[in-house]
């Protein structure tokens, strides 16, 4: 065996490879984390916000449209489906703005991926929410958002991320 080669291998331990997205999602499913895709539908300096109904868990809190990914769906596919179901629009899903995890007091965990949406076809129709509003980014912190969204809301209001 080439001793120098062996030495140089020891001196250079393998570098951790970038974890593939598919592994991350499999791990999340194992831990019972709900994978959720969410849209920041943008119109100039405004974003579309939605209020949960009184009969839902976390009643009357504000959130962004979106929902849980179904098995085999990519986040973008899930989001396009949810926006059609919830708002009746055919949206072009843009780039991913951020990803975050949160565990609610109930013990349930969510893994949220937020995507920008700048273009869509069709008229926005409220199919499932208590209320819908276009909100100036600066005014977002005045709404009572789901806890998992609050950091993002602060950052957007501060002019970050977009
Ligand atoms: N759509 C959406 N969901 C969010 C946001 N922030 C956040 O924590 N969530 C959570 C709430 C839900 O637990 C989950 C989305 O699930 P869903 O939209 O498919 O269904 P749901 O509200 O009826 O939720 P669940 O009763 O099944 O938990 O992600 C957000 O900004 N938008």
Automatic annotation (TrEMBL):
<keyword id="KW-0515">Mutator protein</keyword>
<keyword id="KW-0378">Hydrolase</keyword>
<dbReference type="GO" id="GO:0046872">
    <property type="term" value="F:metal ion binding"/>
</dbReference>
<dbReference type="InterPro" id="IPR020084">
    <property type="entry name" value="NUDIX_hydrolase_CS"/>
</dbReference>
<dbReference type="GO" id="GO:0044715">
    <property type="term" value="F:8-oxo-dGDP phosphatase activity"/>
</dbReference>
<dbReference type="InterPro" id="IPR000086">
    <property type="entry name" value="NUDIX_hydrolase_dom"/>
</dbReference>
<dbReference type="GO" id="GO:0006260">
    <property type="term" value="P:DNA replication"/>
</dbReference>
<feature type="domain" description="Nudix hydrolase">
    <location>
        <begin position="32"/>
        <end position="158"/>
    </location>
</feature>
<dbReference type="InterPro" id="IPR015797">
    <property type="entry name" value="NUDIX_hydrolase-like_dom_sf"/>
</dbReference>
<keyword id="KW-0227">DNA damage</keyword>
<dbReference type="InterPro" id="IPR047127">
    <property type="entry name" value="MutT-like"/>
</dbReference>
<keyword id="KW-0460">Magnesium</keyword>
<feature type="region of interest" description="Disordered">
    <location>
        <begin position="1"/>
        <end position="25"/>
    </location>
</feature>
<dbReference type="GO" id="GO:0035539">
    <property type="term" value="F:8-oxo-7,8-dihydrodeoxyguanosine triphosphate pyrophosphatase activity"/>
</dbReference>
<dbReference type="GO" id="GO:0008413">
    <property type="term" value="F:8-oxo-7,8-dihydroguanosine triphosphate pyrophosphatase activity"/>
</dbReference>
<protein>
    <recommendedName>
        <fullName>8-oxo-dGTP diphosphatase</fullName>
        <ecNumber>3.6.1.55</ecNumber>
    </recommendedName>
</protein>
<keyword id="KW-0234">DNA repair</keyword>
<feature type="compositionally biased region" description="Polar residues">
    <location>
        <begin position="1"/>
        <end position="11"/>
    </location>
</feature>
<dbReference type="GO" id="GO:0006281">
    <property type="term" value="P:DNA repair"/>
</dbReference>
<keyword id="KW-0235">DNA replication</keyword>
<dbReference type="InterPro" id="IPR020476">
    <property type="entry name" value="Nudix_hydrolase"/>
</dbReference>
<dbReference type="GO" id="GO:0044716">
    <property type="term" value="F:8-oxo-GDP phosphatase activity"/>
</dbReference>
<comment type="similarity">
    <text>Belongs to the Nudix hydrolase family.</text>
</comment>
<keyword id="KW-0479">Metal-binding</keyword>
<dbReference type="Pfam" id="PF00293">
    <property type="entry name" value="NUDIX"/>
</dbReference>
């Amino acid at each position: 065996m080439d001793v120098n080669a062996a030495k140089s291998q020891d001196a250079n331990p393998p570098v951790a490879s970038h974890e593939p997205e598919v592994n991350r999602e499999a791990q999340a499913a194992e831990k019972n984390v709900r994978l959720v895709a969410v849209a920041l539908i943008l119109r100039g300096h405004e974003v579309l916000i939605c209020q949960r109904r009184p009969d839902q868990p976390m009643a009357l809190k504000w959130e962004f449209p979106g929902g849980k990914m179904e098995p085999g769906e990519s986040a973008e596919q899930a989001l396009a489906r949810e926006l059609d179901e919830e708002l009746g629009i055919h949206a072009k899903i843009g780039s991913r703005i951020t990803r975050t995890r949160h565990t609610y007091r109930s013990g349930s965990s969510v893994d949220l991926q937020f995507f920008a949406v700048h273009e869509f076809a069709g008229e926005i129709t409220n199919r499932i929410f208590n209320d819908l509003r276009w909100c100036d980014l600066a005014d977002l912190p005045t709404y009572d958002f789901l806890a998992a969204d609050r950091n993002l809301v602060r950052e957007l209001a501060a002019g970050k991320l977009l």
